[in-house]
Amino acid sequence: MQSRYLGWVLLAPTLLILFLFGVVPFLYVVFVSFHQWNPFGASPDMVFNWAANYRRVVFDAQFIASLGVTAAFVFFAVLSELILGYVLAQAFMKEFPGKAFFRTIHTLPLIMAPIIVGSVWKLMTTPSIGIIPDFLANWLGYDLNIGQNAVQAFVTTVVMDVWHWTPLVTLTLIAALVSLPADPFEQAQIDGANRRQIFWHITLPMIRPAILATVFIRMMDAMRTVDEVLMLTGGGPGSATRYVGVHIFKEVFPRTNYGYGSAISVVVLYLTIVVCWLMYVGLIAPRNKKG
């Protein structure tokens, strides 16, 4: 009995912090989403408008378009990070000269704040001073101008996200690969299995939980990206990189439309939960039933 109460006492500070900084802000955002509120307008008072903000979200063409480009961004960014992260994890599993140095350099992007990453990439991709447009123009004859070309802007944001977050994927997959037992691989080699067969039938099923956890984390993080894209493209050109997070930012801060921005935030949170639940049902639940 005492141990049970002791556990709750030890958890109390953490639960209190989670409640104050997680639950309370969420409930406040839900409350604001049912109001029309512009604190900097002529009438700064909250006006209860029932579900008018949510009705507006459903028929907001700009929001629907932002969902489409966000889905494309998440797909290409997370898939690229997963493939590249696995390749790098396998490379770092082997011994080679300068391994410690390259591993340190590889993880440096993780310690950079997103706004710094966006600023650095803005400098590197500016046509007049950037090293990337200069290299592409002089060596490949390719003109890079993300301020005018929508496709280039979208691809550049994906590459920037891959550069920033691939080290996280690499580290998680290294941890998963290191924890694998050696017996199944030795038995497969004795039975004459090649590398492709070992990967598909042994390595991939054994590291699937780590892969799915990584995909969940990166997908949720990519869906709310704001700082990097705002610094790099500002959501342009046009709406090519106006992802959901950028769309919410522009509704809340430049337009000071707090009620509508809160409604969009709640809808995006709901969609994120639904997507994660569908992935769980489609990928993890069938595996648990078989087990």
Automatic annotation (TrEMBL):
Residues 63-279 form the ABC transmembrane type-1 domain. One of its GO terms (cellular component) is plasma membrane. Its main location: membrane. Pfam families: BPD_transp_1. InterPro entries: MetI-like, MetI-like_sf, Sugar_ABC_transporter. PROSITE patterns: ABC_TM1. GO terms for biological process: transmembrane transport. The chain crosses the membrane at residues 7-31, 63-88, 100-121, 162-182, 198-217, 263-285. This is Sugar ABC transporter permease.
